[in-house]
Amino acid sequence: MKSLDQFINQYKPLVESRLKSAIAELEAPKALKDSMLYSLEAGGKRIRPLLLFATLEAFKCKPEIGLDAAAAIEMVHTYSLIHDDLPSMDDDDLRRGKPTNHKIYGEATAILAGDALLTHSFKMIGNISPETASADTKLVLINKLSEASGAEGMVGGQVADMEGEGKQLSLKELEYIHINKTGRLLTYSVLAGAELAEASEQVKDKLQVFAYHIGLAFQIRDDILDLEGTVEQIGKPVGSDTDNDKSTYPSLLTLEGAKKALQNHIDHAKQELVTTNLNTSILEQITDLIGLRTS
Amino acid sequence: MKSLDQFINQYKPLVESRLKSAIAELEAPKALKDSMLYSLEAGGKRIRPLLLFATLEAFKCKPEIGLDAAAAIEMVHTYSLIHDDLPSMDDDDLRRGKPTNHKIYGEATAILAGDALLTHSFKMIGNISPETASADTKLVLINKLSEASGAEGMVGGQVADMEGEGKQLSLKELEYIHINKTGRLLTYSVLAGAELAEASEQVKDKLQVFAYHIGLAFQIRDDILDLEGTVEQIGKPVGSDTDNDKSTYPSLLTLEGAKKALQNHIDHAKQELVTTNLNTSILEQITDLIGLRTS
């Protein structure tokens, strides 16, 4: 059985190199390309690409066929980080321990680098080779990427998050935010793999439930890390959610309650995986990683 | 022969109503939808949708088949205006005589409304009905929209424009900026019509030359208006380019020289149209409108 470490060592460099080449290919002003690449190269776990690759592995497809879709998803994720960090949004100076994009390139270029990454992501999918995906499959991938990341998904979640600041939210309101702000793009990563593998509707439904649970687990773990992690682990000041007066799982459920909810979502995710009868060993290990991650 | 006025009266309300319904259909936070709709409804000539409709008319196709693509283009154009107006970019308080988006909704929501409009535009095209466009045609439309509006097009032009501020640009540098910042999306509007009409490569090439000239004519007229227009006509302070120390066609060519260059591009555009042997009466009238427009 392949270990998660082996899997990560194989596929993380692959998507990172694809991201780099995609930017290098662009005929565009140097400052813009530099700014786009700076944030793409700022590191991170590449959890979304890995989820896509691991889903393909579950279907015994070559993970490589998901390379361009994985790069597209990472572009969308990266654009969202650049815009979230802006002075008018979270006003963060550090991201993964490095200066945020606007701190290096200025606010205007940072906004435009985000815009350009988002715009290019759709072409990355549109250009997937016809041997890998039919035109109809590519259109499904494009439509679902737009839904997952736009007003009805990630951007909507970010607006709801801003509206919730300084307010005492209900668990339902908090879940709406996280399902959209974080969960939708994680779910998309799994479902994009399923689309490329030509999964049945029934299996896609199961994978959607799986992804729903890991999406929430991811966010709960994030909230717990904000309280229990070190600056080195999380790359930003500890306790910044509390300082920003944000509702979090620990603030609503207590720290113990949040840990219990996290374990519940991890358990549900893994139970759902078993029912797919796929080759899910890597997906299971990623699920454990999400529950235990320290950065 | 149909007059341009009749054409505008028929198709401008159509695209405006489609934009409105597209936003109404979204399940998203109210503040986000309001902010998106505010800028979509801020008026304007809808020159891009009209170019697309007029191109379809030139092929004797029903302009209505271009409705969703036209709405998508207007969304991209509107997102670019919202982001351009931001304090870190042009810092404009007024747009078409009305407060800019961030003046009403705040900077964070304005950025996100722009992001959401851009994101949704790709789904608008992805969802064009299969009777109107094949999956392959839709992918061409998506890829070309990404190219025209991203790092290699509009966003790249905007970065070059910012880099050029306070510098004496050459005519070549100024043209690079405008071909990308304004021209590419105008050209796309024409070519999207040609794609939907299943035009031959030869005719598409001719229409691309036509669109290149009207794109530059559009920008030169803009620069002239900035000097000769009234606040009421242009919806912003007269002479703001000069105040912002921007290179313009009149500053490089003199006002007389700019007017001559404008007429040259209009003439070339119309000459190219004639060679297509299409039903180009509305496109010709739009070309004249671009040369003479006062707002």
TrEMBL record, chains A, B:
State the top-level EC class. transferase
Does the keyword field hold Protein biosynthesis?
no
Q: Which cofactor does it need?
A: Mg(2+)
GO BP term, example: terpenoid biosynthetic process
> Which CDD domains does the record match to this protein?
Trans_IPPS_HT
Annotated GO CC locations: cytoplasm
The EC code for this enzyme is: 2.5.1.10
Q: Which family does it belong to?
A: Belongs to the FPP/GGPP synthase family.
- Specify the protein name: Farnesyl diphosphate synthase
Q: What is the lineage of its organism?
A: Bacteria, Bacillati, Bacillota, Bacilli, Bacillales
